[in-house]
């Protein structure tokens, strides 16, 4: 319980330590294949779900029920002509898709996919590596990955991608802070940054029945992480770097062929990775929602892991299908004025609670501490200035915010009837048949 | 902060040499990453384009980060990557803010004595660096990795304690420096509207628009199809009076006599085309 940041090697790391090289290779290929297949699946799934939300069929031509559509699209993309704009910065333009793609795959290596399994008689955990700083690997990879977007936008030599690159840089700098802070609370509870240990710490139950997932225990962190992960992956409603209605295609406007495909791949792999990290950190990773061995050992972990990850991926699609894109300043406001301060306050609270738990305080001491906290909150709330009363000189605004006439408005007299202007008509007018509204009056 | 992390990171290095043997893997990693880091540093110095300079710096920083990981400081390695990618991103933004996209070095000296000052400060910094490295190599007794990790549950805990106790002041000082740099860049890059009044906010604009009593909605269309199919028909207000705005000025101003032929044609009373003719009437 009173474990500080762990120096000792976790169980998973021990299991992984004696992996023979062929097993490592199998895992590497397996992870790569998993991510690529997930990408192909995700694109199709997204199109189908969004189509269903919009009452249209979606892709249904290629393959059984249209499920091979994205594979066909990928093959087509590979054979397209590769165009490099004249104004582009040659090397950076070439490197950008690679930079955005490699870290996306790399980050998945620390994700625990299942617990202890046996592959060809070799006991191992379904995870490539379990570093003592596993969570930081994902953060580092995402911060490198964004270079791909920024450099792509800069090197394209065209204004819209450049704007997208600037947006993306600001977006990632702001949302990575929120993401990192939301992870801090989990690390404080676990006492370790290793993903294997974090999943291990969520194996028990709280209150006798609910799983001890950090998503329940540390719900504010979970909520902030989920918002930040959508911002981090440039997905709707935070897809400002590729806002079609404002920036053509955003950072990849000038890209075509395989380079464009790489950006696409990186985006979807990133989505899978952040979803998998959310599963690992907050939803108990590969554990079933109950304790005990029933459907909860060995390869069953793979099922739970994939189900939880798919739930997050569905959330991504759902958000895209329902929410309009945020305006840029609203987006920044959300990040800096809501997510980051909330995270900081919440981390303070978690630190205090943890210290209380570790120090074995007596009930009286806990009550005093609680009283001090409540007193501080009250003090702050009294010291905060009241909301400014809107000046009454302006247009009176009703509750709805629309300008409406005041309630005591004197109804003006009806306007005098307009005298109908009739042009001088010669006496022998033959056009009696023509009637107008004016004459009807 | 990053500088401090760097300095802290260098402590385990002599430990490796003194206590442990350098493994083959570590040696290989060093001989691969060392030249890369050096190339990055040189590239940063000699690249003409400011953004390319920043990118070369990324190579150096990533190489250093991996070197830390090889020397059993994975936390430091990844923090190096996270912090420096963010830092260089800021640098990148500074460049774009200050000099624009097509940024290349200008050889014109704009500040008097700039080179002299730069040379002096550079030499001073080099002396400081050499002094501290020399001291670290000679007079500091390395404690050893195992001993350093014995307290506070390991590497990470120790770094945290050092930063927030003994090195708190330099740590805060560094962050103040970074904030100053960011603010300075913003002020330098900000294109002010000198002398012009501040721009109104959207809310102010909306209220202003409603304040002066002008019509906000669209002007009513003519009363076509209400009682007639002529655009000359005025729209009626709810109390039955004519909505002035719905009247078409041109029609109102036109004398009726000018329209006699048109009126006759619409009414079907004028010259009618011959029903057997192939063309319409000549007139």
From TrEMBL, chain A:
InterPro entries linked to this entry: NADH_UbQ_OxRdtase_su1/FPO, NADH_UbQ_OxRdtase_su1_CS
Parts of the chain that traverse the membrane: 20-43, 91-113, 133-154, 175-194, 206-228, 260-286, 298-318, 338-358, 364-384
Molecular-function annotations in GO: NADH dehydrogenase activity; oxidoreductase activity, acting on NAD(P)H, quinone or similar compound as acceptor; quinone binding
Keywords for the protein's UniProt record, in alphabetical order: Cell membrane, Membrane, NAD, Quinone, Translocase, Transmembrane, Transmembrane helix, Ubiquinone
Membrane topology: Multi-pass membrane protein
Pfam families the UniProt entry points to: NADHdh
Protein location: Cell membrane; Membrane
Enzyme type, top EC level: translocase
Gene Ontology BP annotations: aerobic respiration
Predominant subcellular localization, coarse grouping: membrane
Cellular component, GO annotation: plasma membrane
Enzyme Commission no: 7.1.1.-
Catalytic activity reported: a quinone + NADH + 5 H(+)(in) = a quinol + NAD(+) + 4 H(+)(out)
Translocase keyword on record: yes
PROSITE patterns: COMPLEX1_ND1_2
Top-level taxon in the UniProt lineage: Bacteria
Assigned protein family: Belongs to the complex I subunit 1 family.
Subunit structure: NDH-1 is composed of 14 different subunits. Subunits NuoA, H, J, K, L, M, N constitute the membrane sector of the complex.
Function: NDH-1 shuttles electrons from NADH, via FMN and iron-sulfur (Fe-S) centers, to quinones in the respiratory chain. The immediate electron acceptor for the enzyme in this species is believed to be ubiquinone. Couples the redox reaction to proton translocation (for every two electrons transferred, four hydrogen ions are translocated across the cytoplasmic membrane), and thus conserves the redox energy in a proton gradient. This subunit may bind ubiquinone.
Protein name stated in the entry: NADH-quinone oxidoreductase subunit H
Organism: Lentzea fradiae
Gene, per the UniProt record: nuoH
From TrEMBL, chain B:
UniProtKB keywords: Cell membrane, Membrane, NAD, Quinone, Transmembrane, Transmembrane helix
Subcellular location: Cell membrane
Annotated region described as Disordered, given as residue ranges: 262-283
Membrane in keyword set: yes
Domain of life the protein comes from: Bacteria
Compositionally biased intervals (Basic and acidic residues): 273-283
The protein's enzyme class: translocase
GO molecular function per UniProt: NADH dehydrogenase (ubiquinone) activity; quinone binding
Chief location of this protein within or outside the cell: membrane
Bilayer topology: Multi-pass membrane protein
Catalysed reactions, semicolon-separated: a quinone + NADH + 5 H(+)(in) = a quinol + NAD(+) + 4 H(+)(out)
EC number: 7.1.1.-
CC terms in the record's Gene Ontology section: plasma membrane
Residues passing through the membrane, by range: 28-47, 54-71, 77-96, 116-137, 173-192
Pfam families listed in its UniProt record: Oxidored_q3
Family, per entry: Belongs to the complex I subunit 6 family.
UniProt function note: NDH-1 shuttles electrons from NADH, via FMN and iron-sulfur (Fe-S) centers, to quinones in the respiratory chain. Couples the redox reaction to proton translocation (for every two electrons transferred, four hydrogen ions are translocated across the cytoplasmic membrane), and thus conserves the redox energy in a proton gradient.
Protein name per Swiss-Prot or TrEMBL: NADH-quinone oxidoreductase subunit J
């Amino acid at each position: 319980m009173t474990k500080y940041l762990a120096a000792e090697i976790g169980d998973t790391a021990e299991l992984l330590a004696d992996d023979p090289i062929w097993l490592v290779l199998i895992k590497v290929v397996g992870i790569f294949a998993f991510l690529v297949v997930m990408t192909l699946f995700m694109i199709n799934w997204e199109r189908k779900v969004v189509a269903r939300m919009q009452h249209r069929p979606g892709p249904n031509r290629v393959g059984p029920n249209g499920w091979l559509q994205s594979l066909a699209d990928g093959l087509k993309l590979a054979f397209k002509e590769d165009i490099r704009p004249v104004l582009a910065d040659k090397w950076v333009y070439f490197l950008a898709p690679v930079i955005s793609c490699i870290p996306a795959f790399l980050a998945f290596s620390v994700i625990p996919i299942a617990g202890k399994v046996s592959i060809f008689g070799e006991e191992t955990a379904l995870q490539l590596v379990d570093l003592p700083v596993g969570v930081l690997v994902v953060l580092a990879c995402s911060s490198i990955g964004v270079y791909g977007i920024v450099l792509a936008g800069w090197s394209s030599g065209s204004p819209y991608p450049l704007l997208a690159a600037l947006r993306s840089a600001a977006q990632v700098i702001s949302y990575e802070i929120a993401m990192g802070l939301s992870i801090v609370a989990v690390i404080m509870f676990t006492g370790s940054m290793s993903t294997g240990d974090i999943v291990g710490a969520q194996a028990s139950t709280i209150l006798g029945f609910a799983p001890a997932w950090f998503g329940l225990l540390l719900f504010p962190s979970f909520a902030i992480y989920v918002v930040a992960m959508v911002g981090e992956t440039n997905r709707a409603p935070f897809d400002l770097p590729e806002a079609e209605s404002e920036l053509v295609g955003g950072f990849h406007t000038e890209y075509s062929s395989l380079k464009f495909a790489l950006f696409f791949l990186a985006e979807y792999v990133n989505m899978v990775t952040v979803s998998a990290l959310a599963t690992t950190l907050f939803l108990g990773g590969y554990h079933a929602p109950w304790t005990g061995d029933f459907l909860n050992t060995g390869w069953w972990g793979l099922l739970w892991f994939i189900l939880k990850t798919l739930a997050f991926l569905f959330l991504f699609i759902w958000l895209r299908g329902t929410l309009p894109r945020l305006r840029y300043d609203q987006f920044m406001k959300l990040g800096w004025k809501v997510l980051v301060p909330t995270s900081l306050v919440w981390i303070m609270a978690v630190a205090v609670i943890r210290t209380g738990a570790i120090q074995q305080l007596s009930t009286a001491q806990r009550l005093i501490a609680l009283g001090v906290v409540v007193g501080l909150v009250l003090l702050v709330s009294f010291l905060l200035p009241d909301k400014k009363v809107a000046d009454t000189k302006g247009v009176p605004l009703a509750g709805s915010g629309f300008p409406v006439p005041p309630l005591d408005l004197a109804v003006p007299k009806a306007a005098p009837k307009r005298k109908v202007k009739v042009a001088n008509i010669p006496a022998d007018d033959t056009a009696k048949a023509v009637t107008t509204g004016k004459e009807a009056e | 902060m990053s500088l401090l992390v760097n300095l802290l990171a260098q402590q385990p290095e002599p430990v490796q040499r003194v206590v442990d043997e350098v493994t083959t893997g570590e040696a290989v990693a060093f001989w691969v990453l060392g030249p890369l880091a050096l190339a990055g540093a040189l590239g940063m110095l000699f690249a003409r384009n400011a953004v390319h300079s920043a990118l070369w710096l990324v190579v150096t920083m990533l190489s250093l980060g991996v070197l830390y990981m090889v020397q059993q400081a994975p936390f430091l390695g990844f923090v190096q990557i996270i912090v420096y990618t963010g830092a260089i991103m800021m640098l990148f933004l500074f460049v774009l803010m200050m000099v624009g996209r097509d940024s290349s070095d200008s050889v014109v000296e704009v500040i008097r004595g700039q080179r002299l000052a730069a040379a002096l400060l550079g030499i001073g910094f080099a002396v400081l660096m050499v002094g501290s490295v020399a001291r670290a190599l000679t007079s500091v007794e390395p404690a050893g990795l195992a001993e350093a990790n014995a307290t506070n549950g390991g590497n990470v805990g120790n770094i945290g304690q050092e930063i927030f106790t003994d090195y708190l002041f330099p740590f805060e000082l560094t962050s103040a420096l970074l904030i100053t740099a960011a603010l300075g860049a913003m002020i330098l890059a900000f294109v002010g509207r000198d002398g012009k009044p501040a721009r109104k906010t959207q809310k102010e604009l909306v209220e202003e628009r409603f304040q002066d009593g002008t019509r906000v909605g669209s002007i009513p269309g003519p009363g076509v199809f209400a009682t007639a199919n002529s655009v000359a028909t005025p729209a009626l207000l709810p109390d039955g009076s004519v909505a002035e705005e719905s009247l078409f000025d041109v029609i109102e101003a036109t004398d009726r006599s000018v329209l006699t032929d048109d009126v006759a044609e619409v009414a079907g009373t004028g010259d009618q085309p011959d029903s057997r003719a192939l063309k319409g009437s000549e007139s």
